[in-house]
Amino acid sequence: MDAVAGRLAADGVEVEHTHPDLNDAGKNFLTLRGAVYIARVAPLLKQYRDVLKAEVVENAEFGLGLKLTDVVAAEIAQGEIIRRAAAFFEQYDALICPATLCPPFDVDWRYPASWDGVAFDGYMGWLVLTYALTMTACPVLAIPGGFTRDGLPVGLQVVGKPRGEAALFAHAAYLEQLLGLARLTPLDPR
Fold first, then answer.
1. CA dihedral sign, ordered 49, 72, 19, 94
2. CA dist 39 to 42, 121, 161, 165, 180, Å?
3. What is the four-CA torsion angle of 173, 178, 181, 184, rounded to 10 degrees?
4. Phi/psi at 177 (nearest 5 deg)?
5. Which of 91, 114, 143 is the last residue in one of the domains?
6. Tens of pLDDT, residues 17-59
7. What's phi and psi for 146, nearest 5 deg?
8. Contact 74/101 with Cβ under 8 angstroms?
9. What is the pLDDT of residues 79-121, one digit of tens each?
């Protein structure tokens, strides 16, 4: 992120290291996601539990363990998150942040449990930045922001103002040009 911020600043873009308050976004996302699992997966548990991935069963059981008050509180919290994001974007044109909490990992891993000595919360913990931004209801694009020493792309999320898709595409196109991504993509899969 520092390298991208430096490139932006060197190109004359005013860069501030700030963000909207998303501290409660991850927890509330998982609650709302659990409620969705009640509708989509819970009916399948009785007949197909033995063929569903353990994480799918776990998510459905988490959803079934929720109380109505949990779901209502998460819905109210999302409304507050949306308002905080909207207030943030009254002052800022875009938010740029990492897509995940770790760089790309070995394709043979199911998911990373930790990175650089920090354990992630659950199998989706490494994705918390992505699902926290989902709670803002703002448009988001993901692009490579750079590459690891092995040539794997490190993802950036570019977040735009509410209903600001056109400006978001312009911001992402500018970043792609500034970072020279066109000549580096597409990537050949392993």
1. positive
2. 6, 24, 31, 30, 44
3. 160
4. -70, -50
5. 91
6. 999 999 999 999 999 999 999 999 999 999 999 999 999 999 9
7. 170, -170
8. no
9. 999 999 999 999 999 999 999 999 999 889 989 999 999 999 8
Which parts of the chain are beta strand (E)?
95-98, 114-115, 118-119, 140-147, 153-159
Number of structural domains in the chain: 2
Our CA dihedral for 35, 81, 13, 143, rounded to 10 degrees, sits at: 0
* CA–CA dist 100, 120 (Å, integer): 11
Domain residues for 2? Answer: 1-11+93-190
Phi, psi of 136 (to 5 degrees): -80, -20
The Cα 84–Cα 80 span in angstroms is 6
Q: Which two tokens stand for residue 127?
A: 């994705």
Structure tokens of 49?
């539990």
Residues 101 and 141 in one domain: yes
Residue 22 CB contacts under 8 Å (≥ 6 apart), including other chains: 81, 84, 132, 133, 135, 136
- 97/7 same-domain check: yes
66, 91, 116 - which closes a domain: 91
Please check whether residues 129 and 43 belong to one and the same domain: no
